[in-house]
Amino acid sequence: LVADIMHKKVPCLGRPFQLGMLYDMRRDCLIPGLTLWDNNKLQKHKNVIPKHFTQMEVSTSDSLEDKAASMNISGSLKLSVLSGKVNVAGSAKYFNDNKKSTKQSRITLKYHISTHFEHLTMDHLDHKSFQYTEVFDSDLGTHVVTAVLYGADAFLVFNRDLDSNEEKTEVEGSFKGALRNISCYGISVEGGASMKLNENEKAVTDKFSCTFYGDFTLPTNPFSFEGAMDIYKQLPNMLGEKGKNAVPLKVWLYPLAKLDSKAAKCVRDISNSLITAVSDVIESLNNAEIRCNDLAVDTAAQAFPAFHQKIQELKKKCNDYKLDLLKKVGSLLPLIRGGQEEECDLVDLLKHHEESPFSSTELDQWIKIKQDEADVLKSFLEKLECPAPDVYKSIGKVFAHTEDVVCFTFTSLYKPDPFLDYLINYTDEKSEKRYKGKREKPESWLTQDVGQRMRKTLKLFNGLKSSSKSNNTKFIVVSDYNEENPGACIMLYRGECDDTVCFIPPSKPICSTTGAVTDSSVTVKLSPACESTVKRNLEYKMEQEEEWKCQSLQHKEDEVTLTGLNADSMYEIKCTALDILGKLPVTSDVITIQTPKGTYPPTDLTHQNSSTRDTSQPAAEPSTPINDNSPSHVPGSKKHWKSKNKHDTSEQR
């Protein structure tokens, strides 16, 4: 009877199957309370055959396909389980246990044992033997259970998080070696396993935690490798005498339509290609959530709430979309199997998915962009030599012990993400029609130009920090949206001023000696000072001297006459521009001039007695920083961040 080609084998997955029970293959559900025979007749004519078999498997894969294979879930039953149409229990709950991180090592040990096999005799399928023929008219079930295999399954799932310097294959190989060495593969029906681990194996296994999924009633749940092995070696004895605690593992189903043509039947099953396609879509959405989990605990996400929030939003929307998609799949399955709908409806559903922002191509692209951004942010935090910004620390607290605060500001983390907004609106659309908003593609704020700007800002910030010797100036890292300065900029908080200033270094000044020259004086012309220049000094010395003399300039002064010079002497002249902090002076090229001999009337300097020489060195003393009376911001500069307490900050000490 069981060998009949009309029979269909189905794993029980923790469901309470019994001989003679009806099953609806269209909905993959049991029909309790209906049968063709009463219990006395079933028990009197069933055959029971001992079926002792034990098997162990070790797997390092966590894919849906491999888990389904290890649980004998095939065909469209996999879609029923995925969509929640089949409520799994016992060991079958393992199917829904997914890894949470790509940096997670997972090894699964499966234990399978069968005890006995029950089946109906051929006499049961004789029309004269049916006691409740109204079952054929009920349209509730499509099959009847004619055989049941009893036993128990268990899955011991070992997990551990990998360190950044560890290789997954190496760790998993060591763990599998430890499993072999404790002779678990030799466990017998009577139980018993040798727990002999050397120090290296114990060091490997101690780092793994354990989750148990089984058809056994345990005295306590194991959490460690050692506890898991203690439970594992007791599993055969937990089935009780003659397997009285065994559960249904697999059933054989016979179509009712073969017994009576009036009975309901399963018209068609879902093609394997469609089953694989749907499974692949769910797998890709699961993987997107896993990668979001990794990004959410990355340095960048932990440091910047704006970055973390975007990752969490995508993860949530992926999960919402996945559940909605599975709900639609689950509603189509019985209709297609029952012949009310065609497979093309499922094909259309997959087509709509591929055209949605949740397609694997676009999700992968967005997550890859965020991973690249996270890597750059992490690199910058390391080079800033600053702890990750603390979301609970405010600028006001930093001001409690300082006068000036210099902020390296990541300015694009709060920038709106059009693709993420489109994706959110796509899932929030309540009508049956698909969202019709403008289609957006994943894009990063981190362009090549923005990256170059950020590197320049980093160099400038570190220069300010290294040149600062004042305890009244603190250097911190913050994040705030500033559309005018994409990527990063330096913001200044000064004294009690509530406003902030975007720090821009002074432009390199230009000085020339096209003015009048005498034996004791020279007129120097200067380029106009830029807005970020708050003070300028004109410095000069005789060529053979070491020390520079300094003359302060007015802010708008563009022509200066140096007097008291020696006749017939070569002089070097340069101009130094100072920023608002006075920490990074910017110096012009050095120009040289020869004063005439004796007493001569003023003459225009010619190219024959002047030249210029470039210098990359900042001006030495007396280029002094601005005093406490310096202006708190540059006239005409842009202002940002009106509140001191809205930013995520980290103090640089």
UniProtKB/TrEMBL annotation:
InterPro entries in the record, alphabetically? Cytolytic_pore-forming_toxin, FN3_dom, FN3_sf, Ig-like_fold, Stonustoxin-like_helical, Thioredoxin_11
Bias-annotated ranges (Basic residues)? 636-645
> Which regions are flagged for Polar residues bias?
605-632
Specify where the region named Disordered lies, as residue ranges: 593-653
Top-rank taxon: Eukaryota
SUPFAM superfamilies in the record: Fibronectin type III
Recorded hits in Pfam families, A to Z, give: Stonustoxin_helical, Thioredoxin_11
Taking every annotated instance into account, which residue ranges of this chain make up the domain Fibronectin type-III? 505-598
**PANTHER family registered for this protein in UniProt:** AIG1-TYPE G DOMAIN-CONTAINING PROTEIN, VERRUCOTOXIN SUBUNIT BETA ISOFORM X1-RELATED
**The protein's name in its UniProt record:** Fibronectin type-III domain-containing protein
